[in-house]
C-alpha cells in the first residue's frame, strides 16, 4: 500500500492515505489474497490431453490390473514466493513464475501406482544416468 500511495502521488499528484486506497480497491471489487504461480511455459491444451490419457490409464490399472508406473525428473528450485496482493474478487491471483536456471536440486522419482510405492534417485543434473545411485 505504501508503494501504491507513493505511485498515486507521483502519477497524479494526489496524496491519499493507505486506508483510503484499501477502501477504494475493495469498492472496485478487488480483494487481498495469496497469489498462485502460473508457469510461463504451461500449455492448457496439452495438459487437458494428458489428463484424458491419464484417466484411461488409471481406469485400466484399477479395473484390468495392468501395472502403471510413473517416472519423472523433478527439480526443487530457488523460486520467488507467491506473496499476497490485490486481485479481482472471485478470481485467482496469479503471479508469473520463471524457473531460476541452475539454482536447483534434481532427482528422478518412480511411483508404482498399483502398489502406492515411491523410489527416489538423486542426480547432480537431470540430464544424466548414474547407475551407482539407482540402488
Automatic annotation (TrEMBL):
InterPro entries: RNaseH_sf (IPR036397), Winged_HTH_dom (IPR025959). GO terms for molecular function: nucleic acid binding. Residues 2-53 form the Winged helix-turn helix domain. Coiled coil: none annotated. Keywords: Plasmid. This is Transposase. The lineage of its organism: Bacteria, Bacillati, Cyanobacteriota, Cyanophyceae, Nostocales.
Amino acid at each position: 500500500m505504501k508503494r501504491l500511495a507513493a505511485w498515486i502521488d507521483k502519477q497524479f499528484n494526489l496524496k491519499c492515505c493507505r486506508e483510503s486506497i484499501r477502501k477504494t480497491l475493495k469498492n472496485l471489487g478487488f480483494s487481498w489474497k495469496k497469489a498462485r504461480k502460473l508457469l510461463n511455459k504451461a500449455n492448457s491444451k496439452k495438459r487437458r490431453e494428458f489428463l484424458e490419457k491419464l484417466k484411461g490409464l488409471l481406469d485400466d490399472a484399477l479395473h484390468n490390473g495392468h501395472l502403471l508406473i510413473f517416472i519423472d525428473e523433478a527439480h526443487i528450485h530457488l523460486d520467488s514466493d507467491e506473496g499476497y496482493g490485490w486481485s479481482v474478487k472471485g478470481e485467482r491471483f496469479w503471479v508469473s513464475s520463471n524457473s531460476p536456471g541452475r539454482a536447483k536440486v534434481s532427482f528422478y522419482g518412480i511411483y508404482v501406482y498399483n502398489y502406492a510405492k515411491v523410489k527416489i534417485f538423486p542426480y547432480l543434473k537431470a540430464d544424466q544416468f548414474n547407475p551407482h545411485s539407482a540402488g
